[in-house]
Fold this protein.
Amino acid sequence: MAQATQHPPTRGEKYRAECIRWMADFTPDLFVTFAFNRSISMDEAQAIFEKFHGYLDRKLIGRAFLRRPDKRTDYIATIEKPDTNIHIHALFKMSKIQKLRFCLIADRIWETLVKGGNLNIQTVHCAEGVANYITKELRPETSDRLLLPLHKEVSPSR
C-alpha cells in the first residue's frame, strides 16, 4: 500500500489554522448566520452588521452602551460569498442573560435593518467546529472579510 505524501502546510493553511485556534480560544456562546437575501457590497454588509451590533448592545445595555465598552457583546465574524450569496457568520461571546435576550430580540432588529433578511442562531457546542466552518473561505488575501467589534479596535496612542 502506498503512503500518501504529506506536503508542508501552505501560507493559507497556516493562516486558517491560526484563525481557527484563535476563534476556539475566544470561547463563543452563539453562532449566528446573517443572511441578506439580496445583492449588496461587502462594505454595505459590514456597515449593516455593525449597525445591528450597535442596536443590539443598546437594547442589552441601554443608551449609554457606547460609554460602557466593558459591558458590550463581543464577536468575531466573517463575510462569506460576497459575489454570489453574501452572508456573515458571527461568533458571539456574551453573558447568559445577554444570550437569552439576544435570542428574543435579534430577529426583530435584523428585519428592521434588512427587509427579507434572516438569521440562523445556534448555541455553540464545539467552538473549534464552528470556527472551522466560518473560516472555510478565509485566507490571508481575504482577511478583509474578518470583522471585529469597533469598540475593540486599538486606536493609536497620542
User: Anything to note?
Assistant: Confidence is low (pLDDT under 50) at residues 154-158.
